[in-house]
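Bench notes, afternoon.
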Amino acid sequence: MRLIPICLFANSLMLLAAGPSFFNDVKPILQKQCQGCHFPAMKSSDLDLTTFAAFAQGGKKGPPFAAGKPDDSLIIKYLSVPLQPRMPMGLPALPADQLDLIKNWIRDGAKDDTPLTTISTKPSAYFQPPVITALGFSPDGAQVAVSGNREILVHKSDGSALLRRLPGKAERILSLAYSKDGNLLIAGGGTPAQFGEVQIWNPKSGELMHSATLTNDTVFGASLSPDASKVAVGCADNTVHVIDTATGKELYKIGNHENWVLATVFGVDSKRFVSASRDRAAKLIDASTGAFLENVNLLRGELTSIARHPAKDLVVIGGEERYPYIYLMDRPKNMKIADDTTLVHKLERQDGPILALAWSPDGKRIAVAGAAPQVNLYDPESGNKLASCIGHSAGIYSVAFSPDSSRLATGGFDGKVRIYDAASCRLVTSFVPVPISERTLTAGGTQ
């Protein structure tokens, strides 16, 4: 009976004796304090801090650390004032305990203990349906793309067949959108607390044309400009990034928001876009330069979703406050304090926070979904509710109209795609978008 506490004591001594870990101790500091300026799409001073290999390679000033010699290491000099500008730039100095941790890691040999991981092209195995966080119809309405674990699954739009599986690096896919000509499929997502990613696919061949890695967390609300030249995404570091679809390169990033940016949508002519954030603002941005133009809305609750009229610069936004608001993108007169002159309609309050919005291609319906297990459809002209699509057992995270506006696809927590008649909300079909594998039994139980 004395063996268990003795083992625990021995393990505790081993943990105390172990030095700082790059993966568990140093990398989280770099992610939080430094990666906002030193990641692949930006690389200030040619320095990338997202992986050990890139970190060790260094930037314009040379290798950032000398194993065993913390006092001779550039990173320590920049973090502790001797070299200017002191890092992290524009932020408070690194706390003493964090600086000591990095010093001790270098003193102990600056070893890389990052777990070996590989990005496999082998399709994921599923033992239960995953939460659906994104879906979208192809421009011809024949296919529907659905988010999976580290992949996109492309189905016939009636759910009768799985046509293609597109595996990628991102653990989660949070946004999906096809170009109007069907030649591009963009996906936004990432792996939490590690990286965000924008994927640009050729959906016809299944080729991943470009992958852009951004920030140190997943990216949200990816949208494709109508001319298919740009992708805009929001980030958890309060920034918006814009990617060139032809090259996969970042064009610029902007930092006008004060909280997570969770949704974006381009205007009709692709020259502007609107970003919506937990800071309660929907901001109008010049898409060619990234210049802030003005706030579209009167600030109320945190915003999570946005959608645009198919032919007009009208947007519907919603979030924590539970009310969908329809706004003009352009202000009819000069803005004043507490100005809400861009408001067209305030729709009825939902039964839970709003998590997804869609505007039908014919302009006649707005779909509103969220924490409540139903999708409500509204007439954008009158603001009246037209129907409610029921059948989900929990929250709904994504909605999309078919190109002819006749069908509405929904997906969420229960892992099923449901296809409704968009006029009546009659359920047409439902299906689990992933192949479910049987668990194998071993002598020790299920695997």
